[in-house]
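USER: Write out one fold?

ASSISTANT:
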Amino acid sequence: MDKLNLKKAVALTTPIASKIPLAAEIAKKQDLNSLVSQEAQFNYRRKITLIEAVNNWDKAVKAFTEGRKNYLEKKTLDGYLVLLKTFTDWLKEMELLDITPGLMSDSVIEEYLNYCISARGNSKGTANSKLVALKIFYTFMVEKKLMEHNPTDGIKKFKNDEPPIYSFTPEQLKKIFGIIPDTWRGARDNSIYRMIVETGCRVDEALNIGIRDTIFSNGIPIRLLFKETKNHKPREVSVTPKLAEAYLYWLNKRHNFGVSNEIDMLHIGLELKPINIRTVQKNFLEYCQLAGIDKEGVRCSPYTLKHTFCKLFLLGGGSVNALREIVGHIDNRSISKYVRATAKEAGENHLSFAPSQVYEF
């Protein structure tokens, strides 16, 4: 863009610049030669794109994607994008695409959610997920000052029966870990599953851990640093004796196969490459089937190991705040489901741990 055309474009956008500072504002402080520099042109085009996003769904979703890709896990962001497309597809189906992102109202969104339940047969939980995606999207729009009001602010989630949180009993855990074979795959999987059930980490966090992320004392792992986390905040956790044993056994197994610690990623395949979550899930289901756990009414997934850690941690006397820090949740809302899940057991233990049963007074 030459200087003359850029100057005209800035002049044309001056009315909008009162809400979002554009290149016209910068031009007051910089001469024209500086304004047409590569960086200034990039910022100018970027802000024009953001303004256009208010009136165009495709550009709005693209701006949202670019603005949130460094703050959300890819699978989380992809999930939101799928749900946003479902919404825009409905707008098209209802011939409502003239209602641009900037003109959206709470009544239209409520109509959409009720339609999903009544006409499409969505559960309340699914409708709530769609609402969350819209809330995240419009929160971004308001943060970028593209809108003054979030149309989802006054919309509450549907009351929904909370799905059960499956967890393993100590007896089931013994069966599972007792059936894992002493092979390359078995030693690696044992280390992965131990890491999840002993620290409450996510499957992908266990797969992304490196040897350099481990703090050793006299050759024994004592702390782990999870760097690639869901909330993008690294966190450090302690290593239990059982986890240290599984970790070192797997490390020795690697050495026996000629794999040096120069390959930093801890949990790898025989081809010395990272393994994916699907492999971890498939192997775990196989172990559960061999142990007969799949017939005991529990979800046979490595994610159940995480739930098991959280539940047993609380039943063992751990605090809610400590659990939140260990598993890396932002607040206690996500942790509260584990509190509710342990309510029955807590009630059963009341007589054993009531003050007068423990102390004399």
Q: What stands out?
A: The first helix runs from residue 3 to 12. The beta strands are 214-217, 220-226, 235-238.
